[in-house]
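Problem: given the chain below (336 residues), write out its structure.
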Amino acid sequence: MGVSLRNALYQVGLLRSVRFDLPVISVGNLSVGGTGKSPHIEYLLRWLDEYLQVGVLSRGYGRKTYGFREVQPVDDATEVGDEPLQFKRKFRGIPVTVSESRALGIPQMLKSYPNLQCILLDDAFQHLAVKPGLTILLTEHSRPFTRDWLLPSGRLREWRAAYRRADIIVVTKTPASFTNEQRMAMLREINPFPRQRVYFSRYQYGTPYELFRQGVNRALDLDTDLLLVSAIANTDYLLSYLGSNARSVHTIEHEDHHYFNEADLSDILRRFSSIDSTNKVLITTEKDATRLDLHRSFFVEHGIPVVVLPITVEWLGADERRFQEDIKRFLLDFKV
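Solution.
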């Protein structure tokens, strides 16, 4: 009822959305996480940075600071949030900022970076105070919003019907065996409006690298035993990949954005020590690595090698070209 009332107030105009005089692209989802926002924002940054002055504005979920803040590579996750820190450390020349209010954050961002030509809003599908020029909605293939329920019965932040606000819908984490028949079935299930476009993507995992030794890679093989330490919304897709690329996979999982404490570190040390292997590593995601990095001295002291598994987005068929054409059309046709 609360979600419906809030949305209704925006629809009737009692609460108003703010528009800005530059292209704003929102990337978000209907669920509480696990759809792959970070890799898709990184894809957009990697591509758009060749042509535009682009920046990122995030809420900075889980940080202990407040208000507008520019993210610096030397920050830690408690100051700016794990995902914004991940973006900044990978794209050091791109402005990355955090603010609870996107409506206030965008003007402050433009004050610091007046030459910005496009702003990406991270996880802003429910942030109705800003009216983006283009809205991208992500939904996970194995858990699409069409089969989910509102919290607490399911994982949705708002009713399924909210998908109508999206301009582009991306079905993420599609399996390697995804067929054209499955694609058509998913399109029928989503039943997009004529103005909406639907695309399909999956993850491409790169070569793991050591967290505490810059520039050192650590490739996986079937002689390696892994301890996966993660605090992300859904590890099924990740575990499927690791299971076919290592001898064994042991797991320690926490809720999304969890900050590791002393008890967690003791559990990690115990579990890692119990793995009877001379070729074992702790593996984690890039997002989790920003929080594990807070305990660098612990891992170095106990000789636990920590490797990070990078992720990029791969599109199915001709979807990448079509997706890029949609973004280009929006940017070229944008009018104040």
